[in-house]
Amino acid sequence: MAPMPTLSADRLRTITIGAIGVVVTIAVWWIAAATVLSAFQIPTPPEVVDVFRARGFDYYQRVFSITLKESAQGYVVGVVLALATAMIVLLVPIIEPIVMQFAVITYCLPIVVLAPILITVHEIPDVGGLSKTAVDLAAVSVFFTTVVGAVLGFRAADLSTLDVVSVYGGSRFQQFRRVRLVSALPALFSTLQIAAPAAFLGALLGEYFDRHLEIGVGPSLILSQNNRETALAWSLGIGCAIVSGFAYLVLGLIGRAVAPWSKGVAS
Q: What is the per-residue burial (b if ≥16 Cβ within 10 Å, else e) of 171-181?
């Protein structure tokens, strides 16, 4: 019978510190909400838990499923476009300044300005009830970080290995496929980890500005704001943090499995 896997000392220390951090955060929140911040109508943890129980799992599943679909679509579109752009930059270096300037513009363009433009373009939501504005903002939110991370990762390849491929008659595409792509995997998955919460935030902001929607985290936040349901708004915010953190964790585990050498683990 195979022995049970054990946690390393570093991993156990990380988990312990994370658990302590969560407990301390909840304790500080509880004490502050019950004392010095009580005049600001900040709910305590038990009040937020009561809202979770009263609304039920079905409510949060229905609300978050819409936003997750929008963020997933935008995430895929933005990441694919960014990776294709980074690959073109590596194969045709002369266009790099233009491409990077465009990426910076997408990052610097305020969402409060971009959202009304997209809402005007997309007057009617999709047949599935999804917001096209939310999907577009999710894609825009991940484009810049993914392009920069991918380009830096592709350029981290060992120069001597690239020279070997070139000496044996390999083209730039062969160098990219056989060397750059493999060496860039750790950086790529780190970039994809950062992009996942950004895509969810972009979709959430798109829902918040797009008043066509009736179901989603954005419309639910607007209703809780209008009805002064502070505990409900906090429960939705905590749900967003949990969803984003879970996506970040899953992509990190996938990256560790695909590129174990990035963590010093034998493949």
A: eeeebbeebbb
Nearest to 243 by CA among 216, 222, 263: 216
Nearest to 109 by CA among 65, 77, 139: 139
Cβ atoms 174, 220 nearer than 8 A: no
Report H helices in 35-95: 45-91
Distance CA 150, CA 84 (A): 10
Residue 100 pLDDT exceeds 90: no
Q: How long a stretch of residues is the chain?
A: 267
Q: Using pLDDT thresholds of 50, 70 and 90, give the confidence band for residue 197.
A: very high
Distance CA 135, CA 115 (A): 11
Q: How far apart are CA 232 and CA 217, in angstroms?
A: 11
CA–CA dist 262, 267 (Å, integer):
10
pLDDT at residue 6, rounded to an integer: 57
The residue type found at 27 is A
Distance in angstroms (rounded) separating the CA atoms of residues 156 and 175: 13
Of residues 158 and 137, which shows the higher confidence score?
Answer: 137
- Predicted TM-score (pTM) of this structure: 0.82
Class of domain 47-263: mainly alpha
Residue with tokens 């943090």: 241
Q: State the Cα–Cα distance between residues 235 and 221, nearest whole angstrom.
A: 10
